[in-house]
Amino acid sequence: MSKFLGTGVAMVTPFLQDGGIDFPGLEKTIEHLINGKIEYIVVLGTTAESATLTNEEKKQIFEFTAQKVNKRIPLVAGIGGNNTAEIVSAVSQFNITGYEAILSVVPYYNKPTQEGIFQHYKAVAEAATLPIILYNVPGRTGVTMSAATTLRLAKTVKNIIAVKEASGNFDIFNEIAANKPTGFDLISGDDPVTLPMIALGAVGVISVIGNAVPLVFSEMIRTCLKGDYKAAQPAHFSLLEFTRLCFVEGNPAGVKAGMKQLGICDDHVRLPLVKVSDETRAKIITEINKLN
């Protein structure tokens, strides 16, 4: 059985008003997620605002999280970028203590060809001592990893074990689900399409909204994984507006507004991100109160 069956959460990085890392808030977030019965945590994914963190801050967050989780649930480390040599160095030097895999995003901004994407991941995987989860998110990277490239990597690079698919393209989802090798997992990267993706054969999700509503969301995912999609529909539909609001003014500003309302952590973000507007905040508060 996959280690990544169910709900993973791409955890936010709580910040203080002065922009420093809020480690008490991070600890509270970790406990909130574990108490919300999610299956694993992704540390320093996109939702963590990792692009605005220094290497030293990343090291501190990786180590702090591993210490506080203390092997209660699996951890996945987000290590990705558009400089292959830099990522190869980062994964080869990464302190794997407490971590089960590395999530690595398709190189962004450079717009590599499919062959470039393949060679990038091959180099990263060969340097890593942990399994690699691919991450296809063209809305952020500016390039789509094709299903053919994903399948080529899955079939030829032994320690590439899964893909987080956030392309929103069901042609890609279908092709991967139909042709992936045994032991390679398809994971949803978009909260609102996770139910139909599980119906196609996805093993779960790496979620954003799970930061705020881990129990509601993870229970819905477990119901889907049992094959009872009709029973999962009410929860799925109840989460749609909250999910929309979490992204309408950017991620993670939206979900942090929800977390602030719940008293988990504050909603400070680092520039170039800004907090959500008062209008959006009021709507998020309304929805989070309904869900909780």
TrEMBL record:
The chain crosses the membrane at residues 195-217. InterPro entries: Aldolase_TIM, DapA, DapA-like, Schiff_base-form_aldolases_AS. One of its GO terms (biological process) is lysine biosynthetic process via diaminopimelate. The record marks 46, 109 as: Part of a proton relay during catalysis. Homotetramer; dimer of dimers. SUPFAM superfamilies: Aldolase. Pyruvate binds at residues 47, 206. Catalyzes the condensation of (S)-aspartate-beta-semialdehyde [(S)-ASA] and pyruvate to 4-hydroxy-tetrahydrodipicolinate (HTPA). GO terms for cellular component: cytosol. The gene is dapA. This is 4-hydroxy-tetrahydrodipicolinate synthase. Its EC number is 4.3.3.7. Its main location: cytoplasm. NCBIfam families: dapA (TIGR00674).
